[in-house]
């Protein structure tokens, strides 16, 4: 399935909550969820209907997939990888998603959204351990150093994102040196680090166990 390239505010309205896909706009009164919280997207803006048990699990999977800006195939791959590890599958899944380089760039405040972070990585603005890495799905490890390329430190969108970082904060597993434009992976993320958006990962595990 191809990646969704339409209006991202529509996705937030579909889930009935802010997924913070639009960057700075999500923190203003222009947010579509704030303006029409009870209406699903569409020409007539119907009120939300109740979901079946299967539908509830499907919606949770769709929500997390959209948060991390992944295709169905990519998300399925991460779930299979998580299920092969020892431990709680849902927790491992979230940890793997959080360790993606594009997510780390977003979490450190170098971008205002994960979609923008993916562009920044692909365009060669990110160095990992002093080497340029342009693969958004690269999984970081403890001790990795993520930094902005010297030639990119004056980019307006990077500095604008850093200026509004205080609105969402930095998770405890990361450390940011704002003045020098670099961050450090202090430890691997755990489930408790993913607190900005409510996620019920067990519903995702149950979804895949039924299909």
Give me the count of strands: 5
Helical fraction equals 25-40%
Q: Report the sheet-strand fraction.
A: 5-15%
What order do the strands of the largest sheet run in, or round the barrel if closed? 2-1-3-5-4
Going by CATH, the architecture of the largest domain would be: Orthogonal Bundle
Main structural class: alpha+beta
So how many helices? 9
Q: What is the chain-wise order of helices and strands?
A: HHHHHHHEEEHEEH
Low-pLDDT residue intervals, each spanning 5 or more residues: none
Can you walk through the features of this model?
The chain is α+β, with helices and mostly antiparallel strands. It has 2 domains: 94 residues, Ribosomal Protein S4 Delta 41, Chain A, domain 1 (Orthogonal Bundle); 89 residues, Structural Genomics Hypothetical 15.5 Kd Protein In mrcA-pckA Intergenic Region, Chain A (Roll). Helices cover 40% and strands 8% of the residues. The chain has 9 helices and 5 strands. The protein has a 5-stranded antiparallel β-sheet. The radius of gyration is 17 Å and the shape is globular.
Descriptive terms for the model:
2 domains; Ribosomal Protein S4 Delta 41, Chain A, domain 1; Structural Genomics Hypothetical 15.5 Kd Protein In mrcA-pckA Intergenic Region, Chain A; 211 residues; 5-stranded antiparallel β-sheet
